[in-house]
């Protein structure tokens, strides 16, 4: 009993201490952002799992600097726990606006509630979340991944005759999925499946996650090549897995782009180079340069202006000829 | 007759029996699903097939696990190996890119040497924290596990760095005598470690430190130097592993390279029969354990486990292997199946006396 009381008593000054620490911290932060009118933005990035992502990060950091936005940046290294922690710390620091690209779609309800309770608007970039209450975030700026998958599927349907490389009457597709549970992986697979359903000869024979990395794409593709020698097409959910698949295909003594056609999504520089060299056949663009649009949205939200719930980024698609033309200007 | 039955009993008690059996069963599962699984053919002058891929892909885990085995034998653990691998890759790739002639052999050799030296230094840092400052190994190496990723990100500016150097690429994709070079490197390190620890007293000294550091010190063993050395060696192995992984895709991705490899390596060590409590260690067991991990990774796409069930499948397999290896779990299973122990075919019907964990002979 005495022990318990002692613990309780000793806990009080500790809590008080930490409270004052927090209080003085956020007061300093708050006054800084209110006085000189600069916007403080907390951005919780997924990680740097691909060239696309690093281009995305760079665009946001550079635009923030150019527009005088005080950017607090964290890298979640692909882990949701880290990201939730980062968002919590932004709430504690009382930033003006929080932006993040969710690692996975679900599980963000609680932390978004906290942000809402603290009166901090949240902007999602690149990836969506699955929450019951859409008022938990202001807007979602990013690509339409279903549309990207559909574009890849459309191209394959249009080029089905050429894509049946071994001429056995069916186009056997293997799919290299992104990180399991991530929005781009789910949506790209969905869009792609929807479009290729139009052609009975196209069939996805195997599908496995390569975690959006080159190493993952290479290892999964190696396995596919060993167990099936009738593969006509690889559909990779990003360029990096496609580049890994190219190495696996070359190691198997086949020519990527000819013996096996490759479709990827993203259009980063390394991917575009491979496309221009004929090792990839088609790339659907997923534009990472969201910085300017993000800063613009943040300013509008903070000024109390109405913003649409969904803002889609401008994107194209490239075949080999277009890649050769676009490659010299590619920044990322 | 009694001689043959005692030989069978000895085989049954052989520490490598269960790891080997687990590997064989896993291979069999693959063959049942895909009858061509074990096929190997010649392709461009080297062997080509699932088994060859498994050999090559097992190299990084095997290298890391070899270093880990010695660390664990001293009753330690090294969580920083994944981060050290990422640093090695980052250092090597940035040096190759920064070199005058990116594709030259000397560029590759210089970059790799430099990277490995850095990694030995990082390993020595871990050893310093553990042996001199007396910090618990799990905490001491946790520092570099977290900080190391940051260091490798800083080296590469957070960008995926792609290199074009055929000699560097050969480290992972090259073949010597029709076998993958990466696998041969891992085997060479295994052989080197085996000779060093088993042909000299070093192995025994490592085990004695793991069993009781204080008693070893009082007996005149330089515990501190030995602990320091095994962490440096673990750093060396992790560095080599990082180079192999980077060479595999000719690029370094500081965020994902070698991520969680420490867990795979610890698993390989444990599957191989080395106790986490320190003391006795088995390099051959680790070798089998690493092959098992690589085979498991190949099994998932081969038998077509859906992506969302990957981790569950791995967990179930690993739990099964660990249960099968535990003498207690096996004994309780046997009792339940056959009822009260009668005179079975095995000479020891009661729970087999667990081999003394603390034995320093092997």
UniProtKB/TrEMBL annotation, chain A:
Residues 47-306 form the Periplasmic binding protein domain. Residues 1-27 form the signal peptide. It is found in: Cell envelope. PROSITE patterns: PROKAR_LIPOPROTEIN. InterPro entries: Peripla_BP_I (IPR028082), SBP_2_dom (IPR025997). One of its GO terms (molecular function) is carbohydrate binding. The keyword Transport applies. One of its GO terms (cellular component) is cell envelope. Pfam families: Peripla_BP_4. The keyword Transport applies. Its main location: other. Keywords: Signal, Sugar transport, Transport. Belongs to the bacterial solute-binding protein 2 family. This is LacI family transcriptional regulator. The lineage of its organism: Bacteria, Bacillati, Actinomycetota, Actinomycetes, Propionibacteriales.
Automatic annotation (TrEMBL), chain B:
GO terms for molecular function: transmembrane transporter activity. Keywords: Cell membrane, Membrane, Sugar transport, Transmembrane, Transmembrane helix, Transport. Pfam families: BPD_transp_2. It comes from the Bacteria. Residues 334-362 are annotated as: Disordered. Residues 342-354 have a biased composition (Pro residues). The chain crosses the membrane at residues 16-34, 79-97, 103-125, 132-155, 175-196, 226-247, 259-278, 285-305, 311-327. It is a multi-pass membrane protein. GO terms for cellular component: plasma membrane. InterPro entries: ABC_transp_permease. It is found in: Cell membrane. The keyword Ligase does not apply. This is ABC transporter permease. It comes from Nocardioides alpinus.
């Amino acid at each position: 009993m005495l022990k318990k009381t002692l613990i309780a008593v000793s806990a009080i000054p500790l809590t008080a201490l930490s409270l004052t620490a927090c209080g003085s911290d956020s007061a300093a932060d708050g006054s800084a952002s209110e006085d000189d009118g600069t916007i403080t933005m907390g951005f919780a990035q997924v990680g740097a799992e691909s060239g696309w992502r690093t281009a995305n990060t760079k665009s946001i950091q550079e635009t923030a600097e150019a527009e005088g936005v005080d950017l607090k940046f964290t890298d979640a290294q692909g882990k949701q726990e880290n990201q939730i922690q980062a968002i919590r710390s932004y709430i504690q620091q009382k930033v003006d606006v929080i932006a993040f690209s969710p690692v996975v779609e679900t599980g963000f309800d609680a932390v978004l509630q906290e942000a809402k309770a603290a009166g901090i608007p949240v902007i999602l970039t690149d990836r969506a979340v699955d929450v019951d209450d859409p008022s938990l975030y202001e807007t979602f700026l990013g690509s339409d991944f279903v549309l990207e998958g559909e574009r890849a599927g459309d191209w394959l349907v249009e080029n089905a005759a050429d894509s049946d490389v071994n001429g056995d009457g069916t186009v056997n597709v293997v799919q290299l999925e992104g990180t399991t549970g991530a929005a781009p992986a789910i949506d790209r697979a969905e869009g792609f499946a929807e479009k290729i359903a139009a052609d009975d000869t196209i069939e996805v024979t195997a599908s496995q996650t390569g975690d959006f990395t080159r190493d993952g794409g290479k290892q999964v593709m190696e396995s596919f090549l060993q167990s099936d020698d009738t593969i006509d097409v690889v559909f990779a959910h990003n360029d990096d897995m496609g580049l890994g698949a190219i190495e696996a295909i070359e190691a198997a003594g086949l020519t990527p782009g000819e013996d096996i056609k490759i479709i990827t999504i993203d259009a980063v520089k390394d991917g575009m180079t491979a496309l221009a060299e004929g090792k990839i056949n088609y790339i659907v663009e997923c534009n990472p340069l969201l910085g300017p649009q993000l800063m613009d949205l943040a300013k509008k939200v903070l000024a109390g202006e109405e913003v649409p719930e969904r803002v889609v980024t401008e994107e194209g698609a490239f075949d080999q000829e277009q890649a050769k033309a676009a490659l010299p200007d590619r920044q990322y | 007759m009694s001689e043959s039955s005692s030989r069978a009993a000895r085989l049954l008690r052989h520490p490598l029996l269960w790891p080997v059996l687990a590997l064989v069963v896993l291979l069999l599962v693959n063959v049942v699903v895909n009858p061509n699984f074990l096929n190997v053919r010649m392709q461009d002058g080297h062997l080509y097939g699932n088994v060859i891929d498994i050999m090559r892909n097992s190299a990084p885990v095997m290298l890391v696990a070899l270093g880990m085995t010695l660390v664990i034998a001293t009753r330690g653990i090294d969580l920083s190996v994944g981060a050290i691998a990422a640093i090695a890759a980052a250092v090597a790739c940035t040096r190759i890119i920064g070199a005058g002639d990116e594709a030259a052999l000397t560029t590759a050799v210089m970059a790799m040497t430099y990277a490995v030296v850095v990694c030995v230094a990082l390993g020595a840092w871990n050893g310093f924290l553990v042996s001199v400052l007396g910090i618990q190994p799990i905490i001491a190496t946790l520092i570099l596990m977290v900080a190391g990723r940051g260091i490798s990100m800083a080296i590469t500016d957070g960008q995926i760095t792609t290199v074009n150097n055929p000699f560097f690429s050969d480290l992972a994709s090259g073949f010597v005598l029709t076998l993958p070079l990466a696998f041969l490197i891992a085997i060479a390190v295994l052989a080197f470690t085996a000779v060093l620890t088993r042909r000299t007293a070093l192995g025994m000294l490592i085990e004695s430190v793991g069993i009781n550091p204080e008693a070893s010190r009082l007996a005149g063993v330089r515990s501190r130097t030995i602990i320091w050395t095994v962490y440096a060696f673990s750093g060396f192995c992790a560095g080599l592993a990082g180079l192999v992984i980077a060479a595999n895709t000719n690029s370094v991705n500081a965020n994902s390279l070698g991520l969680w490899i420490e867990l795979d390596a610890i698993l390989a060590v444990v599957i191989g029969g080395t106790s986490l409590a320190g003391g006795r260690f088995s390099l051959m067991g680790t070798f089998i354990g690493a092959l098992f991990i690589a085979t498991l990774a190949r099994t998932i796409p081969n038998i077509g486990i859906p992506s969302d069930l990957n981790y569950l499948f791995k967990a179930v397999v690993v739990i099964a292997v660990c249960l099968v290896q535990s003498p207690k779990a096996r004994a309780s299973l046997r009792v339940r199946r056959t009822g009260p122990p009668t005179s079975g075919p095995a000479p020891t019907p009661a729970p087999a006396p667990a081999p003394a964990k603390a034995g320093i002979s092997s």
